[in-house]
Automatic annotation (TrEMBL):
Belongs to the germin family. Oxalate binds at N103, H108, E113. Residues 1-25 form the signal peptide. It is found in: Secreted, Extracellular space, Apoplast. Its main location: secreted. It comes from Oryza brachyantha. Mn(2+) binds at H106, H108, E113, H152. GO terms for cellular component: apoplast. GO terms for molecular function: manganese ion binding. May play a role in plant defense. Probably has no oxalate oxidase activity even if the active site is conserved. Oligomer (believed to be a pentamer but probably hexamer). Residues 56-204 form the Cupin type-1 domain. This is Germin-like protein.
Amino acid sequence: MAFHHSSMLLLALLALAAPLALVMAGDPDILTDYVIPANSNADNITGDFFTFTGFRNATSMNMSMPMPNANFTVIKASLKEFPALNGQSVSYAMLMYPPGTVNPTHTHPRSAELLLVVNGALSVGFVDTANKLYTQDLATGDMFVFPKGLVHFQFNSGNQPAMALSAFGSAAAGLVSVPVTVFGSNIDDTVLAKSFKTDVPTIQKLKAGLTPPANKS
Ligand SMILES: *[C@@H]1O[C@H](CO)[C@@H](O)[C@H](O)[C@H]1NC(C)=O
Ligand SMILES: *[C@@H]1O[C@H](CO)[C@@H](O)[C@H](O)[C@H]1NC(C)=O
Ligand SMILES: *[C@@H]1O[C@H](CO)[C@@H](O)[C@H](O)[C@H]1NC(C)=O
Ligand SMILES: *[C@@H]1O[C@H](CO)[C@@H](O)[C@H](O)[C@H]1NC(C)=O
């Protein structure tokens, strides 16, 4: 009888856990070791296919010199730039912050972000769904996790360049930029003015200040 009860309990727990597992899963599982692009065949897949060299310039940068671009820049190694990641549930981004630059408030809908400061220092923060802000000042070598889907930012408030490497638990973590999504997607001015409890001219000023949308991944 006791055994019977505990098996029932186990079944009930498994039934509860099944949808939970789906919710917590990363990218869909694949049934092959890796996914060959449609225009390739197994014969011409070599080590090159599994290699991404786009970080070479960034990693060989002289951090004592001004960065080549005065703006915040990102080099992504996600599914789009590195097709071998298809089905592997991982990706990287190299982030470069000249002094005084910010990676504006954004979210990654499909993954947490594990950011490692490889050069310089960064001030970072995210806001949870209870609207609580968590911030931290990171030194070279420090690592910070931005939980999946939450709004976050990084800021180089110092006078030295900073560089960080971010790992994602998805081959296509996605990027939703708060400023670009809200003010750069042609949402009606009146809707935004009411949403932000302000007037239409203020909304138009915010829209005008935006640079073109960043590449989506
Ligand atoms: C394999 O060959 C096809 C056709 O020649 C080409 O389009 C594709 O890019 C090649 N793939 C790799 C990984 O070299
Ligand atoms: C890397 O730097 C070299 C030399 O400055 C340049 O020619 C090349 O385009 C750069 N590559 C990338 C991917 O930025
Ligand atoms: C980096 O730049 C600094 C300042 O210009 C220079 O003194 C140093 O030799 C450079 N380091 C390398 C490895 O090129
Ligand atoms: C840097 O940002 C400014 C202001 O957003 C923009 O006008 C400029 O074109 C950017 N420069 C580069 C090299 O992307």
